[in-house]
Amino acid sequence: MATFVLVPGAWLGAWAWEETARALRGRGHTAVAVTLTGLAERADLGGPQTDVNTHIGDITGLVEAQDLRGVTLVAHSYAAAPVTGAAGRLGDRLERVVYVDSAPFAAGMCMLDLMPPQIADQLREQVTAFGDGWQLAMPPIDVLGTSSSLDGLDEAQRERLLAHATPQPFGTYTQPLTDAVDPGPEVDRVLIACHDVKALLEAGIPMLAHLTQPPWRRFDLPTGHWPMLSAPAELAGTLDAVASWARQISAARA
């Protein structure tokens, strides 16, 4: 069975993974959800100094403190940045990295680089005016839906998302990833494409082209950008399939 470390995207905490983690445990896996510094129940630990390196440390610190081995790191959305950094630091503890509707970051890239310049400028102005210079609030649901698919989220789930969301430390958006060491060819690499990333792949975005080729394995999940809320059981089933497929290949080679 696999050991999953589940890392949530912007504005979220471990709470977002509850149903998926429960379903994974029901299948016999170990599933540990992370709340990153400055978010959810750890909101009071955040500050202007909180950045991507802080969150990389959260992930590696949890894995080492719990002495986890054979780890499958799972990154949702923003978490692609710190998970990419953490993957290069975990050494032989890491078995697999999975990007859920996200993709690995390149060294020198930050979250704002993924946005049109005018949107990035708007976010900076919002943080300055309303976020004490360091906090980015989750936008209203209608605004959120203009950049990320809300498919599969019913009214109750949308309300839950907004009710539990906490402002994102903006340093995690502005700081480039400085540590993007390749974890090595023995690490399994998986993409779970929901509607957002699937659309980008179909559009032929050059920076994502490598994700459609070996050693990457791709699994499609027909739901919106927050599958741990819109399709938690299906996401758990896909993650189980990811681990099961690898075990079958290893057994066949043995």
UniProtKB/TrEMBL annotation:
<feature type="domain" description="AB hydrolase-1">
    <location>
        <begin position="4"/>
        <end position="236"/>
    </location>
</feature>
<keyword id="KW-0378">Hydrolase</keyword>
<dbReference type="InterPro" id="IPR000073">
    <property type="entry name" value="AB_hydrolase_1"/>
</dbReference>
<protein>
    <submittedName>
        <fullName>Alpha/beta hydrolase</fullName>
    </submittedName>
</protein>
<dbReference type="GO" id="GO:0016787">
    <property type="term" value="F:hydrolase activity"/>
</dbReference>
<dbReference type="InterPro" id="IPR052897">
    <property type="entry name" value="Sec-Metab_Biosynth_Hydrolase"/>
</dbReference>
<dbReference type="InterPro" id="IPR029058">
    <property type="entry name" value="AB_hydrolase_fold"/>
</dbReference>
<dbReference type="Pfam" id="PF12697">
    <property type="entry name" value="Abhydrolase_6"/>
</dbReference>
